[in-house]
Design goal:
By secondary structure, the chain is mainly α. The chain is 54% helix and 4% strand. It contains 32 helices and eight strands. A hairpin with a 2-residue loop joins strand 3 and strand 4. The chain is flat and about 105 Å long.
């Protein structure tokens, strides 16, 4: 079993570092952000002023720390905001070349040495056995490459870039770095007899470092101990620090807890040594690091106490705290219990949970403390009905100007919805929407209001949302950018909840209504009209299909040529064929609304049928309200239509091929048949498939090649697809 592991980096020369996330195998296109889920949308200045918006349990923990501080009356200082909160900067540009990493800077500096072969690639990570398993850790830190580069510059200044001493020194350093990842131990040879004393001293240090990176702690300590005794060595002062580091490495990789006690004692001695002031800060950080390893529960309580006070902490404290917080015992089951690592840690753990026991705990802590932070956590979690009513009453009593207002109202409205009090939820949401709100907070309130809409008119009124102007969601993460990743910029569009409602809950009548609704921007009406037209076609609803296509042409006059055959069709069969040709010709005619706006040419243009209707899944969430904006009759109509769509077109590629083959057989002389067969085969390449796709792809291919061997469309169709 291969395990990627790391330890918190608590000093510039920390032993191990956390591994970076692995890339996803499939990365979706960037999407707009309507309400942030992993970071505050507020700028640092707004956050410091108490305008923190709606805090989410999915926020990164550093932001939950900042929220807890603000909610408990210890607001983030301007200095702390620089490393605790998201920066206000937008996306970086490509105008400036990125700075070189330390290992790249070392490789560049090495090129200045004459007579050396090209440098081998240096992998900073090494694998080793630890506790019966294989771990993968950062062996050579940035500081090692910085030290090597700086030392090389000093030696070139002393001896010259073309000197044998510099070549000898650099070759030995290459050997040292070969141990960063290699399994084979490589130790530089001692300096030759009569060598320059500085070169000899450097070589003894390089040999000690090579043993260190080769994980030979005994030989590394022996070598560093000898260096510490050398009166004239430039490495004499740093040697005791590096000896202490060998104990930390040994404790980490060889699982020897006693070595941590030795490391702590040595680092503390160095920090107390007035002869080594330059190592005091780094040694104290390593003392903290070792204490964190030896007694994590005690250490996280100490860090939490420091973080809970304004201007009493620094970025490393926060880094250590969030590292330890992630490793606290806890769970999300019915027997959830706090780890007892301080009020802030308990709050974060409870807020992140979804356990009823966490809700009961949060409610009890709020009753004891009356803290807004605990009120928000309690509201966000399930509670007994009587407790929920008390919490909601407290949330309604929060006054304007309080940092807790937006979060308490949002989770309070959600609690009212869970308690099946839609009227109370509507009224509260309307009150909040009448206030000045941040964009993310307004979008969250609009989502709650849409979820409790009384009819389709209200649903459409609260469906549009304005994307965040400077954020996008990419590969599951929110990041700064110059503008939203949609052609409409910050113009209102539909968020996922509204599109989900259209795609899986809305009857066709609502699609028709929405296509001409003044509540929706015209670009949203156009997308709805296109999608509704495809649905109406699959449902054999010619009247609605014609209405929707006419609306498409009104909103997009350039579509008139595409629509002319359909609008002029005589009879339902001709209209159906013309409708499906529109779907095959223009990929923007997709029956599902999605966040990927289909307004530009794809890599493979033309209708591809990348859709299909699945049977509706029944929700197991008994507490979830049915769509309040639909009447019972409308819900029944929607359910019947969803069933018909799933039965008629579970896979678009097969559905389209079947229809085109049938038309070709019934109307062999229609001049549009060759094109229709070409596009049908093309759909079976790119579209949604099932077990019958290959059969009908082959039929369309055979008819095209047999009846129309000289057609340009036949020449474009060399294959059929399974």
């Amino acid at each position: 079993m291969r395990i990627f592991t790391g330890l918190a980096a608590t000093a510039v020369l920390a032993v191990l570092t956390l591994p970076t996330d692995l890339d996803s195998c499939s990365i979706a296109p960037p999407e707009p952000v309507f309400a942030t889920t992993e970071r505050p949308a507020a700028t640092a200045a707004e956050f410091r002023a108490g305008e923190i918006g709606v805090i989410q349990p999915t926020f990164r923990r550093r932001y939950l720390v900042a929220a807890y501080r603000t909610l408990t009356g210890a607001p983030v200082s301007e200095k702390e905001a620089a490393w605790m909160l998201p920066s206000a900067s937008t996306a970086t540009t490509d105008s400036a070349a990125p700075a070189k990493s330390p290992d790249e800077a070392w490789a560049e500096a090495r090129k200045g040495v004459a007579g050396l072969a090209a440098a081998a690639y240096i992998d900073s990570y090494k694998s080793a056995k630890s506790g019966g398993e294989v771990v993968y850790f950062r062996n050579c830190m940035d500081a090692a490459f910085d030290t090597a580069r700086q030392t090389l510059a000093a030696r070139i200044a002393k001896w010259g870039a073309t000197s044998a001493n510099v070549r000898d020194w650099t070759a030995a350093q290459d050997t040292v770095f070969s141990n960063c990842s290699g399994e084979k131990v490589a130790i530089p040879a001692p300096a030759p007899a009569g060598a320059d004393p500085l070169l000899a001293a450097d070589r003894r240090y390089q040999i000690a470092a090579a043993y260190f990176y080769a994980c030979d702690w005994r030989k590394a300590r022996e070598a560093f101990t000898a260096i510490a005794a050398e009166r004239d060595s430039p490495w004499r002062n740093i040697a005791p620090y590096l000896i202490a580091r060998t104990y930390v490495r040994e404790a980490s990789l060889d699982v020897k807890p006693a070595a941590l006690a030795e490391a702590e004692s040595r680092f503390q001695a160095i920090a107390n040594d007035r002869a080594r002031p330059e190592l005091r800060e780094a040694s104290l950080r390593m003392v903290d690091y070792v204490r964190t390893r030896r007694d994590p529960a005690k250490r996280i309580a100490e860090l939490g106490a420091a973080l809970g006070q304004a201007s009493k902490t620094d970025e490393q404290t926060l880094t250590d705290y969030t590292y330890l917080l992630a490793r606290l015992p806890g769970g999300d089951g019915k027997d959830w219990k706090p780890a007892g690592a301080g009020d802030m840690a308990d709050w974060i753990q409870a807020f992140e949970s979804s356990s009823p026991s966490a809700g009961a705990y949060a409610a009890r802590r709020w009753k004891e403390s009356r803290s807004p932070a605990w009120l928000i956590a309690a509201l966000a979690l399930p509670s007994e009905p009587g407790v929920t009513a008390e919490l909601v009453q407290a949330a309604r009593a929060i006054r304007p100007g309080s940092p807790a207002l937006d979060s308490a109202a949002y989770f309070g409205i959600q609690a009212e919805i869970r308690a099946h009090h839609p009227d109370a939820a509507r009224g509260w949401a309307d009150q909040m929407l009448a206030r000045k709100l941040s964009n993310s907070t307004r979008n969250r309130m609009l989502a709650l209001r849409m979820a409790t809409a009384r009819d389709t008119a209200e649903f459409l009124k609260f469906a549009p949302r304005t994307p965040e102007a400077r954020l996008q969601s990419f590969d599951g993460h929110e990041e700064d950018i110059e503008a939203p990743p949609v052609p409409t910029g910050v113009a209102p569009i539909l968020d996922d909840d509204a599109m989900e409602a259209f795609n899986h809950q809305a009857p066709l009548a609502l699609w028709v209504e929405a296509a001409s609704s003044a509540s929706l921007p015209s670009h949203v009406q156009l997308r709805v009209a296109r999608a509704g037209f495809v649905r109406a076609t699959v449902l054999n609803r010619g009247v609605e299909a014609k209405q929707l296509l006419q609306r498409v042409v009104q909103l997009d006059p350039k579509a008139a040529d595409l629509a002319k055959d359909y609008l002029a069709a005589a009879g339902p069969d001709a209209a159906r064929f013309a409708a499906l040709m529109i779907v095959l010709r223009d990929y923007r005619f997709d029956p599902f609304l999605s966040q990927v706006l289909k307004d530009s040419e794809p890599e493979n243009p033309g209708g591809r049928g990348e859709w299909g209707f699945s049977p509706a899944e029944k929700s197991d969430d008994a507490a979830k309200l049915p769509p309040t904006y639909l009447s019972p009759a409308q819900r029944a109509a929607a359910e019947a239509e969803q069933k018909q769509l799933a039965e008629t077109a579970p896979a678009a590629a097969t559905y389209l091929a079947v229809q085109m083959v049938a038309f070709a057989q019934a109307h062999p002389d229609d001049p549009r048949v060759p094109e229709s067969l070409y596009r049908a085969v093309r759909a079976t390449r790119f579209g949604s498939k099932d077990d019958n796709t290959g059969k009908y792809s082959r039929q369309a291919f055979d008819i095209l090649h047999r009846r129309f061997p000289k057609s340009e469309w036949t020449a474009k169709t060399p294959y059929w697809y399974q």
